[in-house]
Amino acid sequence: DEGIDTLLDDRDERPGIKFKDADLIGIPFRVVIGEKNLKLGKVEIKDRKTKEVITINKEEVVSTIKLLLKK
Predict the structure, then answer these.
(1) Which of 26, 33, 56, 61 sees the fewest Cβ atoms within 10 Å?
(2) Are 31 and 38 spatial neighbours (Cβ–Cβ below 8 Å)?
(3) How many whole angstroms separate alpha carbon 71 and alpha carbon 52?
(4) pLDDT (tens digit per residue) in 28-60
(5) What is the pLDDT of residues 4-31, one digit of tens each?
(6) What CA–CA distances, in Å, run from 5 to 2, 16, 28, 38, 71?
(7) Which residues contact residue 33 at a Cβ distance below 8 angstroms, ignoring those fewer than 6 apart?
(8) What secondary structure does DSSP assign to 26-37, as a single string?
(9) Calpha distance 32→70 (Å, rounded)
């Protein structure tokens, strides 16, 4: 609804394999919804270009991705 294309990797693989594959196909931002962070209402976003990782409130994912796309 927000105009952001997404790819959900729900394969039965280890996270490292999924992360490597996302990098290989050029996914610009990786949003990781991990069990520990989710309990705190947080998610992790990694910028493939800068390798910067930020942890934000889950409600801020769309607005944060939109800001990162404008850079």
Answers:
(1) 26
(2) no
(3) 13
(4) 999 999 999 999 999 999 999 999 999 999 999
(5) 999 999 999 999 999 999 999 999 999 9
(6) 9, 22, 11, 22, 17
(7) 43, 58
(8) T-SEEEE--HHH
(9) 21
